[in-house]
């Protein structure tokens, strides 16, 4: 009696099982990568080679962000300070503290500290820090309350939707230039009054500084 099905169909259950395993593994790996904070970035908080508390420096001590990130008003990127900048203070303050050993070694050798980058946008996105900072957009809008963070983490998604929300209505975010690095600053402590004043003064600053609500593709993709 001839077989109803070809002999190769005997291997079909095993092939289906292997294929299901491979596809399942690929889907699991993809979700594991694309749904983790390291990919979506929000909440991403890597361990740094030196423990640096922004809450102490920018919060408790009130240091201006621009003392360390001194290129932010004139460059497309916000620079990481050289170890020599740190040593301006730490050659006297905690100068022998073992936690700062790597900083002292870096300052002496000239070899940069291998800080782990936290905030990142895709390579096809063009973002210029100086344009935003020089037109009244505070660090806090993208980076959150850095002055309250012991360990910095990725606060906002920095997605196209996030950027467009501001580009469509910059009056909601803009502030006086002398308040850019005052991360706790508000027009009013009353939320409703603050929103009203933000709208009122925000529109004035948008007009005065000729802030454009750019939404065309070439504004960010070049």
How would you explain this protein's 3D organization?
This protein is mostly helical and 222 residues long. The chain has helices spanning 12-34, 37-40, 54-60, 65-68, 83-90, 101-109, 129-133, 139-143, 160-168, 191-208. Among the domains are: 13-40; 71-79 and 117-219, no CATH class. α5 (83-90) crosses α6. The protein is extended. It starts with 11 loop residues before the first helix and ends in a 14-residue tail after the last helix. The model has no long low-confidence stretch (mean pLDDT 91).
Which descriptors apply to this entry?
222 residues; mainly alpha; 10 helices
Summarize this entry quickly:
The longest helix is centred in the N-terminal third of the chain and has 23 residues, at 12-34. The chain has helices at 12-34, 37-40, 54-60, 65-68, 83-90, 101-109, 129-133, 139-143, 160-168, 191-208. Among the domains are: 13-40; 71-79 and 117-219, no CATH class.
Which secondary structure elements does this structure contain, and how are they paired or packed?
Blueprint (H helix, E strand, L loop, with lengths): L11 H23 L2 H4 L13 H7 L4 H4 L14 H8 L10 H9 L19 H5 L5 H5 L16 H9 L22 H18 L14
Helix pairs in contact: 5-6
């Amino acid at each position: 009696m001839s077989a109803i099905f070809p002999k190769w169909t005997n291997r079909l259950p095993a092939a289906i099982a292997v294929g299901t395993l491979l596809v399942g593994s690929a889907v699991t790996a993809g979700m594991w990568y694309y749904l983790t904070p390291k990919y979506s970035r929000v909440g991403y908080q890597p361990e740094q080679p030196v423990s640096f508390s922004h809450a102490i420096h920018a919060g408790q001590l009130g240091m201006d962000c621009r003392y360390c990130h001194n290129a932010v008003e004139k460059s497309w990127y916000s620079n990481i300070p050289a170890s020599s900048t740190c040593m301006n203070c730490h050659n006297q303050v905690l100068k022998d503290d073992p936690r700062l050993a790597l900083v002292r070694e870096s300052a002496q050798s000239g070899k940069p500290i291998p800080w782990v980058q936290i905030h990142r946008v895709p390579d096809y996105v063009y973002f210029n820090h100086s344009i935003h900072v020089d037109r009244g957009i505070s660090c806090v809008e993208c980076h959150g309350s850095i002055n309250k963070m012991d360990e910095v983490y990725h606060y906002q998604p920095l997605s196209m939707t996030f950027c467009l929300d501001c580009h469509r209505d910059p009056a909601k975010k803009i502030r006086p230039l002398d308040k850019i690095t005052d991360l706790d600053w508000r027009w009013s402590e009353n939320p409703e009054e603050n929103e009203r004043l933000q709208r009122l003064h925000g529109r004035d600053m948008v007009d005065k500084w000729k802030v454009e609500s750019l939404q065309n593709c070439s504004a960010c993709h070049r």
